Structures are given as C-alpha cells and as structure tokens.
C-alpha cells in the first residue's frame, strides 16, 4: 500500500528575501555551505520517511524551486516516489480523490494528513 502526502512547502534550501550575493573566499567555506544545505534537506526528508510516506506530491512554487536535485536524489535513495510541480488548482481535486489533506509546513506533517492507495504507478 502507498502512503501519499501532498506538500505545499519547498524541499530546497531557503532563499533570502532580498537580492544578495555571498562571497566565498576558500573551499572550506563552500563545503560548509553545501554541508548545511544537505543537512537542511536531510532533516526534512527524515520527517517524511519517519511518517511512512512513500509517495510525495509537491505543489509547484512560484517563488523558487519547490524541490532541488539533491532532495530528489535523497528521496530516490529512500524509495519515495516523487511527483513535482502539482498546480495549485489541482490540489483540491487530488486531496478529495486521495482522501488526504495538503501539508503547508513540516510541523504539520503527520500520518493523519496522508492518503492511501492500493497501487501507484509511474
């Protein structure tokens, strides 16, 4: 059985509100930035996996990428099927069809908001 969640938050590192640029002077700083980004994404995905979700629907974001390649890589390794770029106007239909409730933040990610299906295919 598939446990399905529809998220309305991004699985990518947060961006600043203003136009900023970050200057890195050596590889150690760059490695630290990548490590923090990786930890941020892994912490989100650990919560998703802990709930038992194995199909993740991600609503499209207009502000930034809803999911990045690193997050897709980790989701794939944990065998969580991911469907990205769900349009906002499709959320209500999907929610009713799969008997789930959209999840707007990681704090609200729990089993009661997930839907179930006997079979999910790509």
Structure description:
- β2 (55-59), α2 (69-77) and β3 (81-86) form a beta-alpha-beta unit.
- The protein has a 4-stranded mixed sheet with strand order 3-2-1-4, sandwiched between helices.
- The chain is built from 3 helices and 4 strands.
- It has helices at 27-51, 69-77, 91-98, and strands spanning 2-7, 55-59, 81-86, 115-117.
- The mean pLDDT is 90.
- The protein has 122 residues and is α/β, with parallel strands linked by helices.
- Helices cover 34% and strands 16% of the residues.
Q: Biggest β-sheet, characterized?
A: 4 strands, mixed
Can you count the helices? Answer: 3
What's the mean pLDDT score? 90
Structural class: alpha/beta
Helical content class:
25-40%
Question: Which shape, going by the Cα principal axes?
Answer: globular
Poorly predicted runs are none
The tally of strands reads 4
End-to-end gap: 15 Å
What percent strand? 15-25%
Q: Radius of gyration in whole Å, from Cα?
A: 16 Å
SSE succession:
EHEHEHE
Strand order of the largest sheet: 3-2-1-4
In short:
By secondary structure, the protein is α/β, with parallel strands linked by helices. 34% of the residues lie in helices and 16% in strands.
Which terms summarize this structure?
single chain, 122 residues, alpha/beta, 4 strands, 34% helix, globular
List the SSEs and their pairings.
Blueprint: E1 2-7, H1 27-51, E2 55-59, H2 69-77, E3 81-86, H3 91-98, E4 115-117
Parallel strand pairs: 1-2, 2-3
Antiparallel strand pairs: 1-4
Helix pairs in contact: 1-2
